[in-house]
Amino acid sequence: MNKTIDFPKLSAAEIIRPTIYCFSHLRWSFVFQRPQHLLTRASRDYGIVFFEEPSFEDVVRPFMRSNFPNPSIQVVTPILPSGMSDADAIRAQRHLLDQLTTSPHQATRIMWYYTPMALQFTGHIECDVCVYDCMDELSAFHGARPELMQLEKELFKRADIVFTGGQSLYEAKRALHPAIYPFPSSVDVAHFATARSCGSEPDDQRKIPHPRIGYFGVIDERLDIELVRSTAQAMPDVQFIFLGPVVKIEPATLPSANNVHWLGNKSYADLPSYLRHWDVGWMPFALNDATRYISPTKTPEFLAAGLPVASTAIVDVVRTYGVEGLVDIVDAGDVVLTLRSLLAAPKETRYSEVDAYLAKMSWDQTWSGMSSRITLAAAMTNVVPLLRGA
Description:
- By secondary structure, this protein is α/β, with parallel strands linked by helices.
- The protein folds into two domains: 3-186 and 363-388, Rossmann fold (3-Layer(aba) Sandwich); 189-358, Rossmann fold.
- The chain has helices at residues 12-15, 34-42, 86-101, 119-122, 148-158, 167-173, 189-193, 203-206, 225-234, 271-275, 298-304, 315-322, 335-344, 351-358, 363-378, 384-388, and strands at 3-4, 19-23, 47-51, 55-57, 63-70, 73-81, 109-113, 129-134, 161-164, 180-182, 212-216, 239-243, 260-262, 280-283, 309-311, 328-329.
- Strands 1, 2, 3, 4, 5, 6, 7, 8, 9 and 10 form a ten-stranded mixed β-sheet that branches. Strands 13-12-11-14-15-16 form a six-stranded parallel β-sheet, sandwiched between helices.
- Helix 2 packs across helix 15.
- The longest helix has 16 residues, at 86-101.
- The chain is globular.
- 39% of the residues are buried.
C-alpha cells in the first residue's frame, strides 16, 4: 500500500548496511527489465532506494509516495502539483531527496544513475561511489530533453564507474570514461524456460487461432510499425500478438487487422504463460537512431522460452545471436519467407545450442560482475570493509 515516507527504527546491522540510491527514468512498476533485475539482486546485500521521476497530480504541495516491492527495496515517487514549472519541480525534488539522505541512519552511500537528468537535483549530494548504468542512448529517444547530453557529460565526470547495456553502446562511450565496462542484457533462464512445458493459457489469448507470431515489450518509436502492417497483410493466415504498453506514439497509428492483436501490458510473472502458446518470437525493430545501440533483453528471453526468433538487423542482435545461428536476421524483403520457415520447423531444433549459449549470461552472473567492479571502485574511497561486510 502506498504511503508517505517515514524512517522506522533500524537494527545495528541495518544501520551499517550500504545503501544504493537509484535514479531512474523508468518506473519500477512499468516493464520488469534491466533496472529491476539488477537491483532485486543487489537488494540481497544493499538497501535500495529507487527514486522515480515525479508524478504531477492534483495536490497542494509536494510530497513523497513510497512502497516496498520487497523489504530491502523502497520505491519513492515525488508527487508534485500539476502545472509546476521545471525549475520549481527540480527544487521540490531536491528538497524531498534531502529528506531521504539526511536520515540519521546512514552508512555507505552509492548513487546509481539511469538518467543523467537526475543530476539537476542530486549534484549537491556526496556519495562514496557513483555508478552510471548507461542502458540506452537516451538522447536518441523521442522527446529527449535538449539538456540531456550536457548532463550526461557531467555525469561521466562524476561517475566512479560506468556500465553499458550492450557492446555497441560501450564502443560508442568507451573513450568518455577510464572505468567503463559492457554488461549486455542477461536472462533469467529458469523463469522463461517454464514456457517450454505444458500449462494453462491466459483468457485474453485463448481464442486467438494458430499459428501465432508474438512480440513483447515496450511499444514505441523503436517498433517498425509499417513492417508490422505489411507483414500481417502478407500473412493473413497467421496471428500476430503484441504484449506491452504503448508509449510516446499514438495507439491509433498501430495496425488494425483481424490477425493483429494488441493485448496490452502484462506482468513479468505472466509472460511465460503467453509465450508458451506462441509459435515464433519476432522483434520487428525499426532501424533508426533510437535502436542504434539497443541490446534487447527480450532476445535471450525468447530463446529461453524455447521459441525460434526472427529480428531485424539490430547491431547487437546480429553480432551476438545472428552470427551464432540462434536468431534469424530479416528485413522487409525476406521477413515473410523466414517467418514461414520458422513456423514450419520444430521448436526443439536449436534447444541444445541455445541452452549452451544462455548458460553464460544469467542476471546473477551479470550482477556478480558489476558488484566486483563496484567493490574495486569503492577501494578508492576506503569503504571496502563496509561493502564486503554487507
